[in-house]
Write a structure and sequence with these properties.
7 helices; alpha/beta; Rossmann fold; seven-stranded mixed β-sheet; binds S-adenosylmethionine; 28% helix; 7 strands; 33% strand
């Protein structure tokens, strides 16, 4: 099983599921770092038009299992976060993807997300904390609460939840996850 086949089997993020129940009027969304598309598929099933972005050509996984009408409402862009032009949307999500950016890229991508959101639009994302098992990997950025609040200073932070737990990766390895889960709104 490769990495994307592993991701493909995962359910949409629970925090996103709950958010869509609370805010059923979202019409357009971006999935930044969509991977195999577990959240993209969920948003499409909720009737939302989705722009899914990833630097890897994930179309094989992304389009699998979608009906023709859902495929029509999906726009996949293969691009780096730093280069991609973002459309105007009601919601941007980014799960397990932003930590793979360095600090400078993070600042500019988050700024770009803010500019692309419609008035009162939402930004749901997560970041890895400094107790995570992957600390030491210099391709990953680990942040504390203050650093996250600072990165999101131009947004209204509605929720910033810190969760630590032992659990599986997409490749079924057990690790310690230290993750900050954010729900923010364009200020
Ligand atoms: C760990 S996967 C998570 C996928 C999906 N969000 C999920 O939760 O299942 C991270 C994805 O982000 C993409 N990614 C990471 N950094 C990126 C960047 N700078 N530009 C574009 N894509 C990026 C990777 O290619 C990968 O598909």
């Amino acid at each position: 099983m490769n990495f994307y086949e592993g991701l493909n089997k995962l359910k949409p993020h629970r925090i996103l599921n709950k958010f869509i129940q609370d805010y059923p009027n979202i019409k357009t969304a971006i999935d930044l770092g969509c991977g195999a598309g577990r959240d993209t598929e969920f948003l499409l099933a909720k009737g939302i038009n989705v722009t899914a972005i990833d630097r890897v050509d994930v179309t094989k996984f992304l389009y699998q299992g979608l009906n023709d009408e859902e495929k029509e409402r999906l726009n996949f862009i293969q691009a780096q976060f730093s280069k991609v032009k973002l459309p105007k949307v009601d919601l941007t999500i980014s799960y397990e993807a932003l930590p793979f950016c360095d600090m400078e890229t993070l600042k500019s991508v988050i700024n770009k997300v803010g500019e692309s959101l419609n008035e009162n639009g939402f930004f749901l994302c997560n970041f890895f904390g400094k107790h995570d098992s992957w600390v030491g990997n210099n391709k990953i950025t680990f942040l504390d609460k203050k650093e996250i609040e600072n990165l999101l200073k131009d947004f209204k932070i509605l929720e910033l939840r810190e969760i630590e737990r032992d659990g599986e990766t997409a490749m079924h390895q057990i690790k310690h996850w230290h993750v900050f889960w954010v729900i923010a709104q364009k200020a």
